[in-house]
Design goal:
Elements lengths: L1 E4 L4 E6 L6 E2 L4 E7 L2 E6 L4 E6 L6 E2 L4 E5 L1
Antiparallel strand pairs: 1-8, 2-4, 2-7, 3-6, 4-5, 6-8
Length: about 70
């Protein structure tokens, strides 16, 4: 199981995956927006998205849980 956490304070601009989706290392999970820059959040493991903890428009803080991959 891998937890994907935010590396910075940002807005969730776009959610690319859904719970139940299969992802591989390098797939984009969500796209964050901070200071007019788009920052993709990348899966670092192969697996299935077990939990998706953010929605488009959310404001997240550094360390917040974005997704769990099993």
């Amino acid at each position: 199981m891998a937890e994907v956490r935010a590396e910075m304070v940002a807005n969730v601009w776009k959610v690319v995956v859904s719970e139940g989706d299969t992802v591989i290392d390098g797939d984009t999970l969500v796209i964050l927006e901070s200071m007019k820059m788009e920052i993709p959040v990348i899966a670092e493991d192969d697996g299935v998205v077990a939990q998706l903890k953010v929605a488009e428009g959310d404001v997240i803080q550094e360390g917040d849980l974005i997704a769990v991959i099993e």
